[in-house]
Automatic annotation (TrEMBL):
The organism's taxonomic lineage, starting at the top: Bacteria, Bacillati, Actinomycetota, Actinomycetes, Kitasatosporales
Protein name in the entry: DUF397 domain-containing protein
Pfam families to which the protein is assigned, alphabetical: DUF397
Domain DUF397: 10-64
Highest taxon above the source species: Bacteria
InterPro entries: DUF397
Organism, as annotated: Streptomyces roseoverticillatus
Length: 64
């Protein structure tokens, strides 16, 4: 199994709690890949992307 997902066409989403301001938000691409969940800073969409396994991302979301 590979964790190198092509996220060039990812459809990014952010939390409904973020509001319209866009400040200090995380974005994730929930359907970018079945093996990773990419996460980025909404203020720098061209910047680095962190990737998590779906299980790790689900655990993070449950915890927060």
């Amino acid at each position: 199994m590979t964790t190198n997902a092509d996220i060039s066409r990812a459809e990014w989403a952010k939390s409904s709690y973020s509001g319209d301001g866009g400040d200090n938000c995380l974005e994730w691409a929930p359907s970018a890949s079945p093996v990773v969940v990419p996460v980025r800073d909404s203020k720098t969409p061209g910047g680095p992307v962190l990737t998590f396994s779906p299980a790790a991302w689900a655990a993070f979301v449950r915890a927060v």
